[in-house]
Write a structure and sequence with these properties.
There is one protein chain. Helices cover 12% and strands 30% of the residues. By secondary structure, the chain is an alpha+beta fold. It has a domain at 91-134 and 270-384. Strands 1, 2, 4, 5, 6, 13, 14 and 15 form an eight-stranded mixed sheet that branches. Strands 3-16-17-18 form a four-stranded antiparallel sheet, with helices on one face. A two-stranded antiparallel sheet has the order 7-12. The protein binds zinc ion (3 copies). One zinc ion binds at residues 202, 204-205, 209, 239, 241-242, 246. One zinc ion binds at residues 213, 215-216, 220, 228, 230-231, 235. GO terms for molecular function: heat shock protein binding; unfolded protein binding. It comes from Muraenolepis orangiensis (Patagonian moray cod). This is Protein SSUH2 homolog.
């Protein structure tokens, strides 16, 4: 035991005589053990082989994974040449999406959407490359909880290394987390808050169990010779917070007097995503495309992906190469890569020019969802109806 009783003064404010005769007696016997840092100091944690850097509380205990095992020579990706077809939308689709857009805005007049005449439709379809790297990271921290009869197994065996502890099988590309109690690290400590008493002196009555009567201010009398009815003339009243006991159950150990101290291992699965969208000159801002999907041209998932080859757009090829290099460097340092996935989408963008009331206007229809962007809609207030 790391605990040594250095104090022989049981003077922790437990002055209520009723308290000592409670159920506390049996396990106490000797004066309450106190660590040398005083009752509020954190418990001292043992050093566990393989877990030396572990600290109490969040933040610490980060564990780099063992060396990653990259494949010796990358297998050649299949030189499959998919047929890159460019989807285009019809005038009817454009008009329908535009009408839906106008009606979704409560104040917009539907007239431009209904009566506008399309004069030109131009495709600015673009590619989006997406790389996902699904990683696992592990960290440890010392934890404690009220002792409830769990097995005490610290030092009975060498604990398994943090990366050798089996965790649940994760669902690829989905963030999740699991907390595991590391075997052979559990030990028992006296509660540091109540120094193993299970109870704490009541702050409200300073441990006395009663207080000066607030009605008669301790005199026992009111208005001359009238006996105080509130305290029946005692001059003191029972403390309501501790029901006159002078002490309350210790919240740290929940009255159990002892704490189970052990190492928790947190396993975290994270999907790290990077997007690259090829610049296009339609005038539609790039961020609009975050909300839509495109036609999937490539989907490739494996332990470690290889840069795409033979794709017609060289911007995509070089972005893939760069992102794959970045991800594999960054994520293999702080975590373990479990799986990667790369996708290429072709996002349809159509710029529609139309005439309404003798003037030319434009809107965009984009994504598989036929989303519309019309920042300069000519009739944004239906009150101005013609
Ligand atoms: Zn009174
Ligand atoms: Zn009290
Ligand atoms: Zn306690």
């Amino acid at each position: 035991m790391a605990y040594q009783s250095t104090s022989d003064t049981p003077g922790h404010g437990f002055v209520n005589p009723g308290f000592a005769t409670h159920d506390v007696g049996a396990a106490m016997g000797a004066p309450p053990p106190a660590d040398s840092y005083g009752p509020s100091a954190p418990p001292m944690f043992d050093s566990v082989p393989g877990y030396e850097g572990t600290v109490a509380g969040g933040g610490g205990g980060f564990l780099p994974p063992p060396m990653p095992s990259f494949p010796e020579s990358p297998p050649q990706p299949e030189p499959s040449q998919p047929h890159w077809t460019i989807p285009s939308i019809t005038e009817d689709t454009a008009r329908g999406a535009f009408a839906l857009y106008a009606s979704s805005k409560c104040c917009y007049s539907s007239s431009p959407a209904k009566n506008g005449v399309i004069s030109n439709m131009e495709a600015f379809n673009t590619y989006r490359y997406r790389l996902e790297t699904f990683t696992e990271s592990r960290s440890t921290e010392w934890s404690q909880k009220p002792y409830n009869g769990e097995p005490i197994d610290a030092f009975s065996q060498q604990p398994p290394g943090p990366w050798n502890i089996a965790a649940q099988a994760p669902t690829f590309f989905q963030d999740s987390k699991q907390v595991i109690k590391v075997p052979y690290t559990s030990s028992l400590k006296n509660c540091h808050d109540c120094v193993g008493m299970g109870r704490m002196p009541c702050k409200n009555c300073a441990g006395a169990g009663n207080k000066v009567c607030w009605v008669c201010n301790g005199s026992g009398y009111r208005h001359g010779d009238d006996r105080c009815s509130h305290c029946s003339g005692r001059g003191r009243e029972n403390c309501t917070q501790c029901q006159g006991q002078g002490s309350k159950e210790c919240s740290t150990c929940q009255g159990r007097r002892q704490l189970l101290v052990y190492i928790n291992l947190t396993v975290k699965w994270t999907n790290n995503t990077s997007d690259y969208v090829v610049e296009q000159s339609s005038g539609l801002l790039l961020e609009n495309l975050n909300k839509v999907t495109g036609k999937e041209l490539l989907k490739d998932a494996r332990y470690l992906v290889f840069p795409v080859m033979g794709f017609p757009d060289l911007n995509v090829v070089s972005a893939a190469e760069r992102l794959i290099r970045e991800h594999q460097t960054t994520h293999s340092q702080s975590s373990r890569i479990l799986q990667q996935r790369q996708t290429i989408e072709l996002i349809p963008i159509t710029k529609v020019t139309y005439r309404w009331k003798g003037k030319s206007h434009l809107y965009f229809v984009y994504g598989n969802e036929f989303k519309v962007n019309a920042d300069n809609y000519p009739a944004t207030c239906c009150c101005a109806l013609m």
